[in-house]
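Why do we bother with holo predictions? Because pocket geometry can differ from the apo form. Keep that in mind while you read this record for pyridoxal-5'-phosphate.
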Amino acid sequence: MSVDLENETEKAAPGKPLGDRLHPEPRHEPLVFERSGAGKVGYSLPALDVPAVSAIPAELLRTEIEGETEISEVEVARHFTRLSRLNFSIDENLYPLGSCTMKHNPRTNEEMARLPGFAASHPLAPEIVSQGTLELAWNLEQALKELTGLSRVTLQPAAGAQGELAGMLMVRAALTRSGNPRRTVLIPDSAHGTNPASAHFAGYRVKELKSNARGTLDLHVLEEAMTEDVAGLMLTVPNTLGIFESQILEIAEIVHAKGGYLYCDGANFNSFVGVAKPGAMGIDVMHMNLHKTFSTPHGGGGPGSGPVAVAERLVPFLPRPTIERRPDGTFTLDFDRPESIGRLRTFLGNYGMFVRALAYIAAYGNRIGEVARGAVLNANYIRAGLAGLYHLKYDAPTMHEVVFSDRKQAEHGVHNGDIGKRLMDYGFHPPTISFPLIVHGALMIEPTETEGKSGLDAFVAAMRAIAAEVESDPQIVLTAPHTTPVRRVDEVGAARNLVLRWKPQAGNDGSRDRK
Amino acid sequence: MSVDLENETEKAAPGKPLGDRLHPEPRHEPLVFERSGAGKVGYSLPALDVPAVSAIPAELLRTEIEGETEISEVEVARHFTRLSRLNFSIDENLYPLGSCTMKHNPRTNEEMARLPGFAASHPLAPEIVSQGTLELAWNLEQALKELTGLSRVTLQPAAGAQGELAGMLMVRAALTRSGNPRRTVLIPDSAHGTNPASAHFAGYRVKELKSNARGTLDLHVLEEAMTEDVAGLMLTVPNTLGIFESQILEIAEIVHAKGGYLYCDGANFNSFVGVAKPGAMGIDVMHMNLHKTFSTPHGGGGPGSGPVAVAERLVPFLPRPTIERRPDGTFTLDFDRPESIGRLRTFLGNYGMFVRALAYIAAYGNRIGEVARGAVLNANYIRAGLAGLYHLKYDAPTMHEVVFSDRKQAEHGVHNGDIGKRLMDYGFHPPTISFPLIVHGALMIEPTETEGKSGLDAFVAAMRAIAAEVESDPQIVLTAPHTTPVRRVDEVGAARNLVLRWKPQAGNDGSRDRK
Amino acid sequence: MKFLPTSDADRAEMLAAIGVSSVDDLFAAIPASVRIAPDLPPPMSEIEIRRFLGGLASKNAHARDTAFFLGAGVYNHYVSAVADQMLYRAEWLTSYTPYQPEISQGTLQSIFEFQTHICLLTAMDVANASLYEGASALVEGLLMSERLVRGRRRAVLSAGIHPEYRETVRTYFQNLGLEVVEVPLGADGATNPAALAAAVDDTTFAVAVQSPNFRGVIEDWKTGVDAAHARGAMSIAVVAEAVSLALLAPPGEAGADIACGEAQSLGVPMHNGGPLLGFLACRTAHQRQIPGRLVGETRDADGRRAFCLTLSTREQHIRREKATSNICTNQGLMALASNIHMSLLGKKGMREVAAQSHAKAEYCKSRIATIPGWRIPDARPTFNEFAVAGPVPAAPLLDRLARRGILAGVPLSRWDRGNDREFLVAVTEMNTREEIDRLAAALAEAA
Amino acid sequence: MKFLPTSDADRAEMLAAIGVSSVDDLFAAIPASVRIAPDLPPPMSEIEIRRFLGGLASKNAHARDTAFFLGAGVYNHYVSAVADQMLYRAEWLTSYTPYQPEISQGTLQSIFEFQTHICLLTAMDVANASLYEGASALVEGLLMSERLVRGRRRAVLSAGIHPEYRETVRTYFQNLGLEVVEVPLGADGATNPAALAAAVDDTTFAVAVQSPNFRGVIEDWKTGVDAAHARGAMSIAVVAEAVSLALLAPPGEAGADIACGEAQSLGVPMHNGGPLLGFLACRTAHQRQIPGRLVGETRDADGRRAFCLTLSTREQHIRREKATSNICTNQGLMALASNIHMSLLGKKGMREVAAQSHAKAEYCKSRIATIPGWRIPDARPTFNEFAVAGPVPAAPLLDRLARRGILAGVPLSRWDRGNDREFLVAVTEMNTREEIDRLAAALAEAA
Ligand SMILES: Cc1ncc(COP(=O)(O)O)c(C=O)c1O
Ligand SMILES: Cc1ncc(COP(=O)(O)O)c(C=O)c1O
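The structure, written out:
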C-alpha cells in the first residue's frame, strides 16, 4: 500500500483502521453447516431399480440426521476451494518442518495410485484376480529390504507410530520365546514422543537416557543402563538433532551383548537412504515412514504408512499375513504364521501409499542415495547461513536437519514460536518448535533435498532479517503473523473453552453466515 | 492489522511504509526462464531402445534452443501452483462477467473427458474402433437439435466466433446457390464485436442498426434496412443488454420476407435454454457456446466450442464431415457433402468439450429449463438490489444479465473500471465493462444460475458499499484495488512500450530472480 | 534427476559456503563399513513407471469392470468427482498436520467439520480428527475405556465384530495384561443379549458390539449398552459400514459411551483396503481421554473465529509414554474426502444411499433365497450385506465367478476355516438390478 | 438439482424482492408460442453419467491400450503428470480470459511464458497467446500476410501442407476474393523449389510450406522463403508436428516471416482431435497485424512487474469488422498445458523427445523397408512420420490390424481417394521397439 493512500483514506474515514477500509472483504469462510438451506441438494443418485423394500423394524431406524447439510455441489466445491487457499503447502514454498521431511510429492505417483486397478480394487478379492496388487506389495518389500539391508519387511503398519509398536511387539515376542519378555526399553531424551508411547503400548516401562554434550548417546551411559532386564534400545538414526551416532556399531554391540534388540526409528532415513544400510549397523528392527523418506504426500496429517524391516531372527514374529512368491511366480498371502504377533489393523496396510512409494523408489533406482546427499547438503548450507545469528546448542556434524535455538532472541523477549510466526510473513512455514525437548526454544529446520539454492538463500535471508528485527523492532515479531488469513490464534483459549464441533440450533442451520 | 501495531512499528522503523514492514515477502513470482539453471532437469525418458540413428542432413538441424529452460520438476510444480494462486476463479467467488456466463463447471465432466477412451483417442483411428466417440458426438447433436428446435447441428467450430463465421458462410452459400450472395449483413449496435468481425470474414459489409430507447430493435428501423441486398440479420437473443426482443417473431418475418436469414448469436442461450426454442422463433441459424450455456470450463481463455444449429434449408451447406447413424445403428462420418462450405478446422472440433457438454445436458435432462429460470431469477434479484444506486439506461425486463452504468458515480469522477477494481477488494470479480458499447460506462452483470442468494446478497452489499464510498471516499475507489497480488496495472504503458516475451541475455538465464 | 533442483554450479557454491570439498565429506560420521550402495535397477522414467505400475494395475479385477459384491469391512459406494478432484489440490495434499493454525485454517476447519459430521451421524458429543482404520479405532476405544474404568482388565466383545478387528485387539492386548472374552453369535446371526450380559462381570471395563455385525445383521445397540451399564462398564458401539448410520438408530441415542470404527464407506475409495478412515466419538464427560487429534474453535488476535489443534496434552508429543495413544500421523486426507462427501450428500443423500443399499440388498437376498440349493442362514434383518450358504464350497466357486467378471462375495473360510460353504454378499447403491440378476443366475448355474 | 444453490425459501424471498409472483413471470417477454419444453430424458445421476459415458469411452481404441502409430497432425507424445494434474486447479480451469490483470496474473504470466517458448522454438520475435488449432492458424497467417502485402490476392501453398489445413484455407478464402494455388510435391516427397518459385508471381501475397510436410518429409524452409521473398511475398512456415522444432533448423533462422501451425504435440493430449493448440509467431515489424490475444509486460501502481493483455485495438471487441481476426475465446488452458510441458522438458528434454522420435521412426522405417512387398515411397529424409506403400489396400488392412490392437497408421485415401495403397506411420518416444517389431511382423503377415 502506498503512503499517500494511507493519508488520503485516513482523512476520508478517520478512526476506522486502515486495513479494514482497504480490505473490506471478510476473509472468513463459514462452516459448511452454516451454508446449508432446506431444499438444496449436492448429489444425484439413479432412481431405485428394485422394489423400495425396507426389512428393518421401525425401532431400529433413526429419524432424520438433525443438523446435517442441505447444500448444492456448487457451494461445496467453492467452500473447499476457498478453505484450501487458507493452507500453506509444499507447493507454495519451503516447508522446513524438522523431522517431517516435507519434500516434493511427485505427481506421477498420484496418477498411479488412482488407477482403478489399485484404487477401486478390494483387499478380499480372490487372489487369482489380485496378482497385480500382491506383486506390487512384494516388489516394495524387496526394495525396502535392499535399502535397509534387513531380512524381511511388513507393510502393514498405518504410520510410523504403529510401526514402532509393531517393531516392539516383535522384540517382545522374540524375548518371550527366549523365556523372558523383560520389562524396560531405553530411549534417549532426544527421541520423538511416539517412541515412549509405543514402548508403553507394547507393555514396557521406559527408561530415558540422557544425551551427552555432543547431543549423542554416551557409551558408558548406555552400558550402565543396558541390563538384562532391558528389552532393547529405541534409537533415532540420525537422532532428532540431525546428528548421526557415529558410535552406532559400538551401541549395537552393547545392546546385543545383553541380549537386547536395537530398534531404529527410521523417521530420519531420508538422510542416509541409499548411502548406508541400517542392517549393517547392527540394527535389528526399523520402521520407515513412507510419507517422509518415500515422498507419499502428508495430506494435512496423513494417511501415512510405516513399514517395518526386521533382521532374520525377528522374521517369525512379523504381523500376519506375509506376502509370498510361489515357485511358479504367482503371489499369495501367508496367514499360517504361528509365531506372528498377529495383525495391527485390517487388510494389508495403507496400500495406496505402497503404490506411490514404489513409484518413487523406481524413479530413483540405484541413484536413490542422491536423496540423502541432497538433504544433507541443504541442511548444512542452512546451518552455515545461520551460524552465529542463532544459537546452536550442539555443534556436531549436521545430517538432514539442524536444530538451532532462540537463546539469543530470548534475551529480547522473542521466542522460537514468535520467530516461526514471523517466518510466515516472509512466505515460509515455521520450523518445528515443539521438540526435541532437550533443546529449549528449539528451531528444528529440515529443508529436504527438493529445495534449491535460491529457496534456501531466501529462507536464510528471512531468518537473518528476523534476527535483525528482533533487535530493532521486536514488536513486529512478537505480534506476527501480519499477513496470514487469520492473525495469531488463541490456542490457550481453545483448550480452556472447548468447542469441538458445531451444534445445530434453531435458526443457525442454513441461516446467515456467522461473523 | 491492529491500530496498536501500526503505531508501534511506525516508531520502530520510521519512514518505511507500514505494508512493507509487515509484509516483507515479495509476492512476485519470477518467470520460469529466470528459474532455469544449467544441469537441472524436469523430465525423464526411457533409454533409447533402438539404434541412435539420425538420418537428417546437418544443414537441416538446429543447434541448442538458446534460452530454453533447465529446471527441475519440483520447481515447475511450485511455479505453476504459485502462479495459479494469483488468479481469481469461479470456485473462489461470484464472477459476474456479463456475456461470459461464468457458471460452475461440474467436476464429473472433467473426469469423463479424461477417460483414456476419449482423451487418448485419435481422430483418424478406424471407425470400427471409434464407435464410442462418434456415438457421443451424434448424441450431442441430437440434444442440441432438440434444445434449439432446429434441423441439424455442426460441432466443428472451435468457439463462438468460429461458429458465427460458419453460420454466415452457410447463409452465403445458400444465397449463392439461389443466385446472389448479397452484400450486406445487419447487426444491431449492441452486438458483441465478433459479430461484425465474423460477417466481415464471411465476405460481407456490415450495416449497424441503432437500438431504440428500450434497448431493442425497432421494427421500422429493421424494415428500412432490410433490403434485397441484405443477406441477413445477426441478432443476439436476448441481446447484450440482457433484453429479449419480444418482437422476435415479427423480426423474423421481416427478414424472411426479403429472402434474408436470421442468425442468432446464442452466447446468451443460458437465459432461455429449455424454456423456449429458437427454431420456433424463426431463427435459421444459431451458434452456441458450449463454454457458456453448457458449462465447459473457460480455462483462462479457452478452449471453447461453438456448435451451429441450422434450419432445414441450410443443412446441405453444413461443414464437412457430418456424423451419421447407419440403419444398423453404427456411426460413420459423411464427407460426401457436395454443397458443404468445407471445413473450418481439422478433425471433428473441440471434442473434449463435447464430452463435458453432453455430460452436462444429461445431468439436467428434461429439467434443463431450470438453468434459464435460475439465471433470470438471479439477474433480476441483483437488478432489484441495485436499482436506484446505479443508473439503468434501459429498463426493459431483464433476462440473464443486467447492464447498469456509472453515470451517477461519474459525477464524482469514478468510472466503471474503478468500480470494478474496487469490487476486487470485496472479493468479487468485476462485471464486464468493455461493452455493450451503447451503454457508456457499462457495468454488465451476469450472475448465472449457480450463484445462491447469500452470494448475491454479498455482491449487492459490496456494490452498495462502493456506491457509498464513491460519495464519501472516492479516493479509495479510484486507487483500488488494494488487496490484490498486484496493484492497478499500467495497461497503457504495456501497449506503448511493447514487451511481448522474455529474451535470453548473457546472465539472466538462471541467474537470480528479477525484482 | 527431476526431483532435485540443485544445479552443479549451485552445489559447488553451497559446498564452498559450508566449507567442505564434497558432499561425501558431510557423511563422515557414518562408519565407512556400513556405507553400502543399494543394488537396485537404474532409474525408471515416468513413461516406464506408467507402463510398470499400469501393467500391475491391469492384472487386478476392480469395481469398475466387474459385477461387484465384496464388502466385509470395505464397501464400494458412490464418491462424487468433486470429492475426488479436490484432493489433488496441493494445499490439501502436500501440507502437514496443522500445527501452525495461522496458515492451516483450511485443514483445521475441515477437521472441525468432519468431527461435527461424525457426531451428527453417531449422535455422540465429541469426535476426533480420525484414526487409522476400524480395527485400531476399536482398540483405541477399548484402551480409552480401560483408562476410564481403572482397575478392570477384561473386555467383552461380540463375535459379530469384524474378525480382523478382533484379531487386532488381541495383538494390542497381548502384552498389556488385558483380557478379551468373545461372545458367540446366536443361531439367528445376532448377538444374544443374555449370553452377552452373562459374560460381563465386575472385572469388565468395556462391552463392544458391532452393528451391522460382520454377517450384516443389524444389532440392537441396547444389547451392548445394557450389558455394559449393568456392571459399570463402558459400552462401545462398533461400526464397520458407516453408511448404515444414516438409516439405523444411532449408538448415541441408545446410550453408548463410545462409537468407533470405519468410515471408509462415507467418501473414501476402497484403495485395496487402505488408506481407510478410522473414527472415534464419545461423550463430553470422557473427552479428555479421547485418543488422537482434536480441533477446537477459538479466536485470533483480531477476535475472528479460528480453529486450532487442542487438548494436545493428551498426546504423545507432550505426554510421551503417558499419552492416551501413540498415534501421530492419522488419516487427514481421508477425513477431508469424507467431509466433502458427507457435506455433498447431507441429510437426504446419506439416507438415500443407505436406503437404496438396503433395498438392493433385500432384492438380492430374495433372488438368492429362491435358488434351489441356496439359503440365507441368518433369520434377523440385515442392512446391506448378508451371508449366503450354497451347495458347493464357496472359495473355488468365487474364484470361478471372478474369472467371469463377477466378484460375488467374500468367503467366510478366510477367517473360519471350517466354514467352507458360506460367503458374504454386499450390495450398495452402485449395483444395478441387472448385475444382481446376473449374480443370481450365476449362482443358480453353480447349484 | 445439485448445480442450483437456491433453496425454496431463498427463491420465495428473491421473488418478493423483485416484485413478481413466479419465475415464469420473468419470461413474459418471450412469446408464448415459442415457449416449448424440450423432449429430453429425465436427469441422469452422476453414477449413470459415469456408466453412460464410460461405456462410450470403452468402445474406442486408444493410445494406452494399443500399439499406436497414428499421426497426421495429432501425435501421441509423453505428457508429464505435473502438467496433467495442474489443469485441475480451479484457478486455471474456471477462470475467464484475463481481462482484469490485477486478479489474473497467473494466467497472464503463463501466457507470456508460452509466447516466449514459441519464440524460442521457432526463432521468431513475437508469438500470440494461441489460436484454435493448426488449420485456422494457417488461415490467420495467410490473412495477416494479405493485410501486410495489400493489393495482392493469391496465396501459394505447397501440397505438402496438411490436406485439412488446405481445405480450411479454401473455406475461409472462398468469399474473400482470395485465391489459392497449390504446388504438388515432387516424386521424392518434398516441395520442388523450382515448381514453387514458378508458381509465385507479383499477385502472390504469401507462400506457405510445411515441414515436416504431411508425408513426414523434412522440407528446407529456405525453399519457401526464397520463393516468397523473390517476389515480395510473405513467407509462412507451417508446422504440424511441433516436436520437430527442437531438432530441425527453426523457420526464424531461415528468414520466414510467419511461423504457425499446431503445437498439440508439445504437452496437449490427443483429445480425439480437439482441443488442440494453434500458434502463430511473426517478426516484430509485423506485430501490429498479428491476430488473437497478446500479453505484454508492464508495471503496477507500485512499480512491480506485472502482465496484461495488450494491443487489443487489433481485436474484434474494439475494432469490430476491422479487427485482425474474429477470434475471441482461444485455447488458453492448452497453452498453459504446453507452457508447463515445455518448461519441464526444456532445452534438453524437447531435443531428446525429438531425437528419440526420429531414431525410433528410422528403426521402424528400416524394419518395414525390408519386408517383401512393402516400400517407403519417399526418398527424402523424414522426421518421425513417413508414408509406406503396401501390396494390399491400406484401409481394410488398417481395420484388421486395429481389431488386433495395432493402430498402424492413417490411410492416405482419406484425403486422396485414388491413393488406396499408402498410409502414414508416425512414431514417437512413446513407442517401444517391441511395438515396432510387432507392427513389422503384422505387416509382413499381410504381405
Ligand atoms: C522422529 C519421529 N519418529 C516417529 C514419528 C511418528 O511417525 P508417524 O507420524 O508416521 O506415526 C515421527 C513423525 O511424526 C518422527 O518425526
Ligand atoms: C455475445 C457474444 N457473442 C459472441 C462471443 C464470442 O464467442 P467465443 O468467445 O466463444 O468465440 C461472445 C463471447 O465472448 C459473446 O459474449
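Chain B touches chain C at residues 2, 37-46, 70-75, 77, 81, 106-108, 110-111, 510 (CB under 8 Å).
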